[in-house]
Amino acid sequence: MRYNQVAKLILLMTVGLALGSQPQPASAQKPAAAGQYLTKGDAIMMLSATDFMKKKVGELLSWTVGYDVTRVNRVRLTPTINFIKARPRKLPPDGRTVFEILASVDDPGGLSNIAGVRADLSSIGRLPNTMLVDNGLYGDESAGDGIYTLQASVSPRIGAGAKDIPVAAANKKGWLALAKTNLEINKNPVIIEAVLEPDKAAADGKVLVTLSVKVDNPGRLEDISSVTANLSQLLLPAAMNLKNDGQEGDLAAGDGTWTLQFMLPEEVEAGNYSIPIEVTNLAGGQALGQAKIAVYK
Question: Where are the domains of the chain?
């Protein structure tokens, strides 16, 4: 049904309501002659007699622009982005560490009504209109489940800091849903904790001391290239490698905690010592820390 027909139908219905429930001017009380129809102008004149009905019709129709789209219930038309996330969220700008963006999308007309989901990756030096997929390929876990996926990396030209990633989902009727996630760009790892157990030990060559260093890395833990401790103050090698392989005192492989075990030589003098620790990763990042131990005789 065309707009003019809809407008005429609404007008005729509202005129009947207006005449039946509102006071009428004398000119409007005279019935129309048999076979005579109201013109659009006549209807407007009659409606103008009741402010109440003018207000009600005006909420829906505009005589200059037609249907007022601002009155549409968009909840029934627009797609929905249920959640959006990036994993991992912390990344180095190395051009090689891959991250994923996952967007869970739905639509009142069903998933088949989704026309596309795209992300603006310009903040990390990539394309501003990059497509997410829900086809079981290119990192997407399951086709047609409403979770759209994108894999990318951060350009080496990008500086450190938080970067917003806007995402838009469009349906086949042209309606949009907008959301965003963010990435934390930094190439340097972080030493969360560094402890020696026991932190007080005798220099007798018998007490086993365990150094544990918990590390966080932007990107993947497997991109940590080395965790070393300088034990030269304790008359041991200047660069001893800690391990995260579940062996030689390390509790679990790949858990983010690197471990080294050693015994204090008898020649070490009593006193308080700070053991320097260095962590490096494949992105060229570095973190420095220390662990303290008290030695007695």
Answer: 3-71, 75-185, 190-296
Give the model confidence (pLDDT) of 159-209 as tens digits: 999 999 999 999 999 999 999 999 999 999 999 999 999 999 999 999 999
pLDDT band at 76 (very low <50, low <70, confident <90, very high): confident
Indicate if 190-296 has the same CATH topology as 75-185.
yes
Q: Domain 75-185: state its class.
A: mainly beta
- Domain spanning 190-296 has what CATH number? 2.60.40.10
pTM of the full predicted structure? 0.67
Sign of the torsion angle spanned by Cα atoms 110, 116, 120, 126 = positive
DSSP string, the chain: --HHHHHHHHHHHHHHHHHHHS---HHHHSPPPTT----HHHHHHHHTT-HHHHHHHHHHEETTTEE-GGGS-GGGTS-EEEEEEEESSEE-SSS---EEEEEEEE-TT-GGGEEEEEE--GGGTS-SSEEEB-SS-TT-SSTTSSEEEEEE---TTPPSEEEEEEEEEEETTS-EEEEEEEEEE----EEEEEEEESSEEESSS--EEEEEEEEE-SS-GGGEEEEEE--GGGTS-S-EE-B-SS-TT-SSTTSSEEEEEEE--TTSPSEEEEEEEEEEETTS-EEEEEEEEEEE-
SS3 state of residue 12:
helix
